[in-house]
Amino acid sequence: MLERLEVSTVLPISREELYNGWLDSEEHSEFSGGTAEIDPTEGGRFTAWEGYIEGKNLILEPYSRIVQAWRTSEFPETSEDSRLEILLDETEEGTRITLVHTEIPEGLGERFETGWVDHYFMPMAEYYEGDLDDDFDDY
Q1: What is the pLDDT of residues 83-135, one digit of tens each?
Q2: Overall number of domains in the chain
Q3: Counting beta carbons within 10 angstroms of the beta carbon of residue 132, is it exposed (0 to 12), middle (13 to 18) or buried (19 or more)?
């Protein structure tokens, strides 16, 4: 059985800055704390966290949506890639980033949910000098 998760927070930057930063190797590396190499085109491949994460950009809708085929080295060899959808919505405080992560191999969803918060949202908030929402809106 495949798992699904959704987490979001608001960061004090524009949708354009966040979109461009997610797809930029240097900035992604800086805000996440792990080395990333990203081809920022549709069909472009990426790695993050020194190769622990890898995948491909499937859909790029500038400043609003990124859809990626996504996997980690923890995926069973027989598992297909999961699907990560990054949604960016403008708010009065900046940009709400929502990660909808689906098709996750069974047993990994909770770990990845914690990982998104601990290894992405928290460092991104510090990088962009903002505060996280007290609760990550899980849907």
Answers
A1: 999 999 999 999 999 999 999 999 999 999 999 999 999 999 999 985 455 44
A2: 1
A3: middle
